[in-house]
Structures are given as structure tokens and as C-alpha cells.
Design a protein that fits this description.
mainly beta; Jelly Rolls; 2 domains; eight-stranded antiparallel sheet; six-stranded antiparallel sheet; 3 helices; 45% strand; globular; disordered N terminus; disordered C terminus
């Protein structure tokens, strides 16, 4: 393996939607070649990007009555894959849910659903645009299928269109008065139509996509060279995400890049 080059394979099990490169810490990766083999019985879409480290995000309960966010109250569970669970909403209470604050904008969330609701659930997912909470635009996943009684436990992908007007919280903003912290980007997941029993999650992973394969045919393969996309921000871990849970194998060939290349504005692509 050449100096500064990383060659790793990520193998996903039949119930997994995402997997990470086994690298504890890195300054960044510039993707050079990717090979994808799909054992799924249906066509799949694939994204490559990064998963945020735990130190860069906080999860907490959102209580609509009193509009209160309690940062960090769900961290012990939702940052861990160890088996504990937390409710995503509040039994029989509409508009309660969870809040997320992160140091950078993110466009994907993978929920590990451990307990389904006992009925229909309707969700609102909102971001702060500097003056108001605004509904996100969904690209993948369904807000009427997340944790519902007719669904299935396991990983569930929600992919959004990254808002161009997503704003950091500042002193004087209403969310800061409600408990969010200045300097973070915030999101609320609220159970707009509450079931008697709210669904529960074992963990939530979040991050940023950087590269996309629209279709990998069922049982087929895809390969591409010299992509030149920087797929990781400082300290993040490279991740691959599928919209179909099945046995997949993804091989990365990437080149490490300097910290200066990945510390800029997260909305800007690093030039090749």
C-alpha cells in the first residue's frame, strides 16, 4: 500500500444500512476508487460520506409544553450501540420528541429502531434557519414509516436535502432560550401524531454525504476510478450508506488529505 493511501473493505450484513471504515482517527480522505458489490434482490442507491464523532453532537429530549430542550439527556443511550433504548417521542403526547445539535450541518440519520409504536405515527423533522423552525425536504425514507407498528425493527435511513439556509444558533434566538446552545446547528424530531406507545431507538448515527451512486443493480456491481471527492471532515469517519438492507461489500481506495483541506466551510466542496 502506497504511503498515505488507504484500502479498506466494508461488508454489510443483511440487516445493516451503513458501515464505517475501521479507522479510529483521520484528517480526511479523498476518494480515488470505489467498488460496490450488491447481493440485494432489488436495485440500491448508495452514498459515501462521513459519520460525525460523538464529541460533535448532542441528543436531548424535546418537550413541547414549555418548549424545552435538555441537551445531553439522551447521549448515554443514543450515542451507544450497547443495548439500552430511549423513546423517540412521548407516549400519547403530541409534538414531544428529541432535539439534536451538531457542530456542522448533516444530511443523513440512521435510526436503530428497537421498539415499534402501537399505532400510526407522524413526524415533523425541522431545522433552524435563523428565524424559524422549518421542515426539511426528505430525499430518502418516510416520516410515516419511522418506528410504526406496521414496520420493522432495525436500521432506518432518513436522508434530507441539505438546507442552504441552515443557521447556527446565536444568543437571542428563541431556541437558545429553549435550551439549545449558541454555535451549534439544530434539528427537532417531533412526534406530531402521537401513538399510545412511542417507538424506541437503540442508537442514532448522523453525518454528511459527499458522493452518490444513483443505482447499483440488484445482484450487480459498480466501480469508478479517480473520483477526487473529499468524503470526510476533520476527525469524522468514512461511511457508506445503502437505502436497501442486504449483504453488500464496498471497497474504498482513498488518499489521506491534510487537515487544511477539510477544515473549511462544510458547505463547500474541496477542490481536486
Amino acid at each position: 500500500m502506497a504511503a498515505g493511501r488507504v484500502d479498506r473493505a466494508v461488508i454489510l450484513g443483511a440487516s445493516a444500512l451503513h458501515g464505517m471504515l475501521d479507522i479510529a482517527r483521520t484528517f480526511g480522505h479523498r476518494l480515488k476508487r470505489v467498488e460496490i458489490e450488491s447481493a440485494s434482490g432489488v436495485d440500491a442507491r448508495v452514498w459515501i460520506g462521513s459519520r460525525f464523532r460523538d464529541d460533535d453532537i448532542e441528543f436531548g429530549t424535546w418537550v413541547e409544553v414549555g418548549t424545552t430542550f435538555a441537551p445531553g439527556t439522551l447521549d448515554a443511550t443514543l450515542k451507544s450501540d450497547a443495548g439500552s433504548t430511549d423513546e423517540l417521542g412521548n407516549d400519547s403526547t403530541a409534538n414531544d420528541g428529541i432535539g439534536i445539535q451538531a457542530v456542522r450541518p448533516f444530511d443523513w440519520l440512521v435510526f436503530s429502531i428497537s421498539t415499534l409504536s402501537d399505532g400510526a405515527v407522524t413526524w415533523d423533522i425541522e431545522y433552524w434557519n435563523g428565524s424559524a423552525w422549518t421542515n426539511v425536504t426528505l430525499l430518502e425514507g418516510s416520516l410515516t414509516a419511522l418506528g410504526v407498528s406496521t414496520g420493522a425493527t432495525g436500521e432506518y435511513l432518513v436522508l434530507i436535502q441539505l438546507p442552504t439556509d441552515w443557521a447556527k444558533f446565536t444568543n437571542g434566538d428563541q431556541p437558545v432560550a429553549d435550551g439549545f446552545q449558541p454555535g451549534f446547528y439544530g434539528m427537532r424530531l417531533r412526534e406530531a401524531g402521537a401513538a399510545t406507545t412511542a417507538p424506541e431507538a437503540q442508537y442514532i448515527h448522523i453525518g454528511r454525504t459527499r458522493w452518490h451512486v444513483p443505482i447499483v443493480a440488484a445482484g450487480g456491481a459498480y466501480a469508478a476510478d479517480d473520483q477526487r471527492a473529499v468524503i470526510c471532515h476533520l476527525y469524522d469517519r468514512p461511511v457508506v450508506i445503502f437505502n436497501q438492507a442486504a449483504a453488500h461489500r464496498v471497497t474504498f481506495h482513498s488518499v489521506l488529505v491534510s487537515s487544511q483541506e477539510v477544515m473549511g466551510d462544510p458547505f463547500e466542496s474541496v477542490k481536486a
